[in-house]
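Sync notes, pocket subgroup
Present: LS, DG
LS reminded everyone that the earlier model was apo-only. Rerun requested with adenosine-5'-diphosphate included. Inputs:
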Amino acid sequence: MAITLTSDDAKDWIYKGEGGANLVLGYCGSSPFLVGKVLRVHKVLRSEVQSVIERKRLFSECEQLVWGDIPQLVKSTSKEIAEQVFAVQVMSPLLDSKHIDGGVPIFVTKEFLESVEKNVHTQRPPWRLHATEVDLLSHSALLMSDHSVFSSGSLKDDVCVAVEIKPKCGFLPSSKFIAKQNAVKKSVTRFRMHQLLKFHQGEISQPSEYNPLDLLSGSREQINQAIAALFSTPYNNFRIFLNGSLIFGNLDGSDSSKNTVYSANQSGEIGASIEDQIKVRST
Ligand SMILES: Nc1ncnc2c1ncn2[C@@H]1O[C@H](COP(=O)(O)OP(=O)(O)O)[C@@H](O)[C@H]1O
Ligand SMILES: [Mg+2]
């Protein structure tokens, strides 16, 4: 870990997105080492205030058994290191290392994390804000390439369109360990069941039209159907970025503005003048 980010550096990191486990920040400063990078900062559940001692157990006993073959993973001293080792040692052999970005853990001070959390506060989706906060006990964060822009500086003047798809599990399980009362798992995708649950709990106004089995079917017609469904109900499964700025989909993954189409100028700024605008899709 060559560098340490301190409170002075916090102003250079802007909100890029977040999932259940990490806050993702984009770099807007001028350090050549950091341009084109994002920082993944670990979050914790607000309801689970853990002590430093509890944090030392990264893997439960069962997890240690499952991952015992990869000693570097179970010996990881932080979540960031575990995440990186998982990407490099588990995912790379499966998907080819050229498709995997493990990132580099770097040191961050508590003051950096506090400032960053304060700065991005208003941009975070309320429901995420309510549930999670930056893990202030963490001493490191994962630095990796920003995959929504070209990594090479020489392509600065080019237009970069990045498409993010979260495909979800694209096959049905057939394990003999699935109990009779859970047999529905063999015919209905986990994604579909989760959508119906969210719908019945009032979290979404309609279940997603997307079916992971279509996208991964190998059939041209079904793949087209999956893509059409992603456009119609993108939720957190589909986003399009222009020069690193979101132009289609939702950062918060909600269905609140499910067909959000942003207009952006060529530098990716949203809300630019009409002449500069590229209309990606009209609703
Ligand atoms: N390396 C990256 N480059 C660009 N955007 C990223 C990168 N990593 C994450 N993001 C953005 O941040 C969002 C949340 O990241 P994600 O990895 O899903 O977080 P979590 O680990 O909490 O699930 C993604 O949906 C994506 O839009
Ligand atoms: Mg995620």
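DG: The pocket of adenosine-5'-diphosphate (ligand 1) is lined by residues 16-22, 24, 38, 144-148, 164, 239 (CB under 6 Å).
LS: The mean pLDDT is 87.
Action: DG to write up.
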